[in-house]
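Record type: ASSEMBLY
Status: queued
Input:
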Amino acid sequence: MRQLGKARALAALVAIAVVVGACGSSATPSASAQSTGPFAIGYSNGGGVGNGFREEQVCTAKAEVAALGTSKISGITVIHRNTDAAGQLSDLRDLIAKNVKAIVFNPNDPDALNPALAEAHKAGIVTVSVDAYVTDPNTWNLYNNQVKYAYLGASWLFKQLGGKGTVWYTRGLAGHPADSDRDIGFKQALKENPGITVVPDVNGVFTGWDPKTATQITNDFISSGQYDKIQGIWASGMGAQIVDAIKAANKKFVPIADADIGAFVKQLLDPADYPGLVGAAVTNTASVGGAGVSMAYKLLTGQTVTPSTGAGRPNTVLLDPQILDNTTDQGKADLQKWISVPGMDPLWPLSLSIPGWTDYNPATVPSSCKGA
Amino acid sequence: MSTTATLASRGRSLVGRRDVLRRNGWTFGLLGLLAVLLLFAKIVEPSYGVLAIQGLGTSVLPLAIAAVAQAVVVISGGIDLSIGSMMALTSVVAASAMYKQPDEFGIVVVIGVLALGLALGAVNGALVVTTKVPDIVVTLAMSFVWAGFALIVRPAPGGGASSWLMDLAVGPILVDWIPKATVVMLIVVAVVWIPIARSRLGLSFYALGSNALAAFRSGVPVGRTKWASYVVGGLFAALGGLALTASTGIGTPVPGPYTLESVAAVVLGGVSLAGGRGGVLGPMIAVVVLQMVRTDMTFMSIDTNLAIVAQGVILIGVVMFGSLLEIRRASR
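Status: finished
Output:
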């Protein structure tokens, strides 16, 4: 009897699926989708909730939707949560089921999302990967040139040291595509500067892009006496935490190259609190979120999107980073210009727009997340 | 047939139906809730249909199997907080072993990974039984051990999966509205669980979970039964790991949220955390219910993180409702 009940329960489950499934219309590619609007957009961010870059990235996407207006984008559905690749697959499928016309997403993995992306393509949905690439052939990729990011910062640092000395190599998250690309750029610069030695070794140490971990690693590095033997630091976005740990230990600063995170740039421009701090900030714009929405709209309306040459993969647009340092008055003035938008979270990257890819007023980005 | 015989037959049938409803009331209730959530999705998003049902089947696969693993252990009076880590370890082993290998080799890998799951469960169970340390402590500690091994096998996400394994997780079977992943899951769970549930071992799981002392006095080998529940749990955790590899095509060493979500599904699925009561179908349906809560909230453009709040509220509500039923039953 117990098994009979279960069998009936199972039959009921199938019946529900049949009712809902049979009544539904499967999403099919729509040729008329091109050049008409407004379009519903889906946005999936599968990790880093609370991380400055990820939060700002979602805010820029919302700001871009607002800037494009309801005549072009009817709305954006954001799924922003910490999950694994399987969880993000589920999120992408929810967005497909919601019948959006484009999905912009920050991928958890280059390959794992391909099954859902293929389903999206089959349903006529445009897909754009931001911040990192995916290998799905029908998805467009738009991300910061991370190889160049690392190369610019490392080359500046090695030049500061006169091509000789020991550098502490602090990285991001093991296995993340951006971290792997940055490693390539760092090692390119290292190859051009044979007088530079890297500690703890050529593979560096991982902060996991977690502020607490970065502080802990730095404290351990200082207390073990290793800090006294280095002449420079290359950082992957956790420079502010590293600098504060050095300051707390009353140690003399060594030159440091990091990203354009607000807190780090403020340190570079504050000789009273951080005397002798020399550093450079390389842009790693989180505006890829907004740019991804812009790219999706262009693709939906049949506008031509030109891929970057030398990206190494098809359908890919690479954004070139810029570098500024505090070694000259002009550099300080330019850095100061970056700190122009009020209400920015100190852990957010400062570069808020990408020429040709974002339409919003940068000042609207912090407020675009209010009530989210 | 005489009138009297017909009436008697109808009477037996009515009693039988009532018995079925009473015994499976919780499962039917969950199905009702699921029906409401599915219909709500259909109302909010009229295009919700065949593709969405297929996607739903694939999406819930890893967690549904994890919920079965947890249910087996909980029914036997234990709890396994290492399920997520075992899934990560078996997934990375599978993805690493299948990477760039012929499809036929995938069969060998699947068998090996299932054996690994049995071994992991056997270690968990042996530690619980021999050390007498509470299950929650042992399995929490082992979750770090298995997660550490997963990182040793594969420090970063990657690897590959046999194409036939990935095919099992996506698309429909027979007709468009039956997700292949759901059919595969039901077959696998039925093949493993039904023979166990109907055997002396299955009865021992329930007896042990209901009252360990009474089970002991009735001749149930308590230690061996508890150990066996962890072994079966390990086998299902390995199936969950394979489901992860099948749905993503890779192995990820950092455990996903499967441990705590499997506990949530078990509670919502009508399995008593005190042990001895419930089944494996309820937790599987509970996983679909929890997924549909998130989907419906996405359709309504509600902040995704509120779905987690909603899950918590539903769980508290379910536990309170279950307690009320217990009180009512006890007062009769």
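Annotation: Chain A touches chain B through 58 residues (CB under 8 Å).
Annotation: Chain A has two domains: 31-143+286-318+353-368, 146-282.
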